Amino acid sequence: MSQPTIESILQEKRLFAPTPEFSQQATIGSLEAYQQLYEQAATDPAAFWAELADKELDWFQKWDQVLDWQPPFAKWFINGKINISYNCLDRHLTTWRKNKAALIWEGEPGDSRTLTYAQLHREVCQMANVLKDLGVVKGDRVGIYMPMIPEAAIAMLACARIGAPHSVVFGGFSAEALKARLLDAEAKVVITADGGFRKDKIVPLKPAVDEALKDNAVPSVQKVLVVQRTEQEIEMVSDRDVWWHELQPNASANCPAEPMDSEDMLFILYTSGTTGQPKGVVHTTGGYNLYTHVTCKWTFDLKETDVYWCTADVGWITGHSYIVYGPLSNGATSLMYEGAPRASNPGCFWDVVEKYGVTIFYTAPTAIRAFIKMGDQHPNSRDLSSLRILGTVGEPINPEAWIWYHKTIGNETCPIVDTWWQTETGGFMLTPLPGATPTKPGSATLPFPGILADIVDLEGNPVAANEGGYLVVKHPWPSMMRTVYKNDERFRNTYWEHIPPKDGEYLYFAGDGARKDEDGYFWVMGRVDDVMNISGHRLGTMEVESALVSHPAVAEAAVVSRPHEVKGEDVYAFVTLEGTHASSDELKAELKQHVVSEIGAIARPGEIRFTDALPKTRSGKIIRRFLRNLAAGEELVGDISTMEDLTVLDKLREG
Ligand code: PRX
Fold it and tell me: How many Å apart are CA 165 and CA 263, to the nearest integer?
């Protein structure tokens, strides 16, 4: 199946309106209702968000100013006091939701657990007290490196409860990647597990933590709290490592939520950029709580009876905002699944939908393409009739995959919400509202109320309908990232300086290319910088290059992505070797494995190509454009006059 091309998308004219039955029961049930909200928010954003903050969240103390905007630094709900763990837990306990399922969890081997709001609250308080006993105080950073088990969410909520910003590191990242993130965040405690079950194997998490912390490599880390999941043999370092199951029984379940300033840091989440060093995206408390709450409520048209399942991992922003904080703040039932579709169990997702009567299902295009390959017999042999809304996120969805999702999973009745957003934005930016917005396959449709998005050229001028340009956002929104951790300068030049302010208005530069059609619908085409999108995971070309050149055999490396049927994009590396090393299949395999141990399995190059030289400009810059063409097997496009040595290209083409 092909990836979306500009031509195929330009021809995409199909329109899918929500059914009248769906619209009638929806919170926002018509396009007019959406437009009204949009206008209201655009006219007076501060009043719009203040009204929602008042209505939707519990505050210990109200703010005295809604927004303080000193571009590019925004503050929301100044002097407001709030705790997101309180909003996700305590406030539901005084209602009938006390005994409602907060988390439904299904383990890969088939074990399962359900935690009601009261039970989740109890465990969060216990873990918060354990963290305090381990010396964590308000403001200390805590690293979380976990499998997809309830304790991952418990750990996040426990940190939030005591005001210790968490930094979750995806369990698929290697020890090296974990170390770099813990170092930058200066974490005091790490919460991990002995391991997790994934694709019929045990992912050994604790050994990776040991490796990352070896020889006091991260001096800030004093304690490691270990959750028992797989029960395989692991080493416990005395004076440093403690077991959760040993401490929990004696931990008090009473731990009042700390009143946090609205602008206190809630978490740091590392994401890839254009340099080799991932950046620590900082999110704060009040604005993030509000925005994830409202977007989750409206985009998924949440009802009290919904069983909502987002298939992301808590290690990514999708897991933060739409497995943990958004759904729980709304008092919804959020389902967590530890496993992944695998050859031994290609129907496992549909089993979970059937077993729990999932009503809202949110996944990524790469997963949808994988399901298509696995065959329709798997979904077709399960009862999926409970589903009422489908969602997608992470990369542009090709219209063919959209239509398959609509027909085979959605029985042609479930609205599909294609949500465009980023780690940096905290929550949905472009998205249909399922009862209101007619959808077009491949388009994330229209901006969420309060989001002033546009497509502009490099000078900040809006481009005409259907013309490609850069996706920007004009006005701050509550869950906008506040800065890059310890690096305001990087925040400024990554997001605010590529495109200059226009008519005095600062433009947030998302890094994506897009166009807007004649109906104002947005079509996101993908990154315009050196960031790849591998199976919906963001990865910098420079990160993979740095990993490759850290191998003694490698002199130089240039990394690009090439289209891939299932993953969307795949890593393709061009490598030149140090003098004495000869190219071989063994070395290729070794280099691939080296990248895995430097970053993680998501970065494993699909292909490594050895070459004598890389195409460069006269000033020594690698011309990646040509390499992308070569990797994709396309004709070379673009100007070659700036090239230093034209024979390099001939050799690469011949090779
Ligand atoms: O290129 C866009 C793509 O994913 C990038 C953000 O990646 P990350 O911060 O890891 O967050 C992913 C989950 C929110 C964006 O710059 N992207 C995300 N959603 C979509 C998308 N591209 C097209 N359509 C989407 N719905």
Answer: 12
With a cut of 60, say whether residue 72 has pLDDT above it. Answer: yes
Say how many Å lie between the CA of residue 396 and the centre of ligand 1.
8
Q: Is the pLDDT of residue 239 over 70?
A: yes
Closest C-alpha residue for ligand 1 atom 7: 422
Which residues are near ligand 1 (CB < 6 Å)? Answer: 271, 317-318, 393-396, 418-423, 444, 510-512, 524, 526-527, 533, 538
> Could you tell me the distance, in angstroms and rounded to a whole number, from the CA of residue 93 to the centre of ligand 1?
35
| Backbone angles phi and psi of 481, in degrees to 5 | -55, 145
Residue 587 near residue 633, CB atoms below 8 Å = no
C-alpha of residue 510 to centroid of ligand 1, in Å? 10
Ligand 1 atom having least distance to the Cα of 316: 10
Beta bridge partner(s), residue 65? 78
Question: Rounded to whole angstroms, how far apart are CA atoms 391 and 431?
Answer: 10
Single-letter amino acid, residue 514:
A
Q: For the stretch 420-441, what's the b/e string if a residue is b when 16 or more beta carbons lie within 10 angstroms of its beta carbon?
A: bbbbbbbbbbbbbbbbbbbbbb
pLDDT digits (tens, 9 = 90+) for 344-362: 999 999 999 999 999 999 9
Q: How do residues 161-171 score in pLDDT, each as one tens digit? A: 999 999 999 99
Cα–Cα distances in angstroms (integers) from residue 423 to residues 206, 293, 537, 628, 632, in the given order? 26, 16, 11, 26, 28
The rounded Å distance from CA 428 to ligand 1 centre is 10
